[in-house]
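Help: read this over?
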Amino acid sequence: MDKPVVRDAALLIFRAVLGVIFVAHGWEKLFMSGVTKTTGQFSAWGVPQPKLSVWITSIAELLGGALLVVGLLTTFVAGALALLIAAAIYFVHLSSGFFTVDNGIEFPLLLIASLLMIVVFGSGRASVDGVLTRG
């Protein structure tokens, strides 16, 4: 299993799945729930500057997720998204318990751990970063 092709394939799948999750969450905030409803939720949770925070979060999730999928600026994007999720844990999930069903920290912790794996191991050769750094 310690073959470069297997490692790169695993990183590609891992990055793509994680990126799609972020794109879906950003899409949901902007286009399904909408900015107004999401701003109300952020405000109820005590997130500072809720409308601005909704825009920053939504765009970061959409753009960051897409960049993870293609593997461009991967370690930077994964680090930035990990900080965003850390803020979400602090403002939203920390006081809700552990389990996702209660809006707890279970899912955000999984996201942070996944993002940190990408920061540590990079995007792999099957990525735009991998193509740009070859040669």
Q: What stands out?
A: The chain has one domain: 4-124.
